[in-house]
Amino acid sequence: MSQRVYNIFQKSVEAKMQVGEELGPLIDHASELIVESLLADRKVMVCGNGTSSAMAQILTSCLLDRYEKERPSLPAVWLGSSVSTYTALAADYNYSDIYAKPIRALGQEDDILVVISTSGNSANLISAVQAAHDRGVKVIALTGRDGGDISSLLDVHDVEICAALNSRTRIHELHLLTIFCLCDLIDHKLFGIE
């Protein structure tokens, strides 16, 4: 079994090395958009489904609390945080509106929406991107495979960080590493944290 574990580690490292060089400039550009938004007194909204929702929560937590070192809190909203609101929207309207409605209510021009999706094809995340554009909110999409339908919705003001891999597990690992890279870059650019 230890060989099986080693093989998993090896596959993870190989996946990161396969796309790391390509994703580096995109991650840096996404961090610039977030920093510009925060310096303009705007906020970051984050959403995803399943494991991607948990990653959205991790990003929000790192921004609101801290990443590696103490610093002022940064305005971030995890759109999946209120189960009662989430289930009410799904029951009263349509599941595809669970993120779009809060974005329409809270989103301001030059806010940032970070949408996390391994497939890029979830109807509620597609609606979230459309709602963000309606409100003048820039989108940073962490996607996988070929980016799915979300990829085709992005415009010149948005950034797609696509882990172009076929393994859902490897995509999740790349998304988590991307989140940590974003947090590191944001802290460095805003506060000079090394």
Automatic annotation (TrEMBL):
Under Gene Ontology molecular function, one entry of this record is: isomerase activity
Q: Which InterPro entries match?
A: GmhA/DiaA, SIS_dom, SIS_dom_sf, SIS_GmhA/DiaA_subfam
- Tell me where on the tree of life, at the top rank, the source sits: Bacteria
Report the EC number(s), separated by commas if there are several.
5.3.1.-
Which UniProt keywords are present, listed alphabetically? Isomerase
Which Pfam family is an annotated match for this chain, by its short name?
A: SIS_2
Q: Domain (SIS): give its ranges.
A: 34-194
Q: Which GO terms describe its biological process?
A: carbohydrate derivative metabolic process
Against SUPFAM superfamilies, the record matches this protein to: SIS domain (SSF53697)
Task: Fetch the CDD domains from UniProt.
Answer: SIS_GmhA (cd05006)
Question: What name does the UniProt record give this protein?
Answer: Phosphoheptose isomerase
